[in-house]
User: Fold this.
Amino acid sequence: MRATRYPAKPKAGTSGPGLAGSRVHHVNPIKPEFGSHVFGTDTGGDAGRAVTDRNGLMPDGGEQAGYFDERTESLKNVAWAIRGETEKITPHVPLGPTDLQKALLEGMSNASG
Assistant:
């Protein structure tokens, strides 16, 4: 029997199906019970490059950025944490739904009502 990986890697800039339904990631690392300290990854501007892909590193060196690519907000926050300068860590700001997610929610709402 051949193993199938699910979910398939989402396109850059998307969140894919999310962690809740994932067969790969059974624990959501931003939930309080995980014990992590969540920080910003996609604020942009002076905070650093926004993370656009869930990979650690992106090979293109261009517009796409993983969590540990140069000048990303995520990498800067990791550096601040390692140095003990936690006051410089940017806060996590949850993103709202994407346009596609909004359309799907609206479609589901219209179908049920």
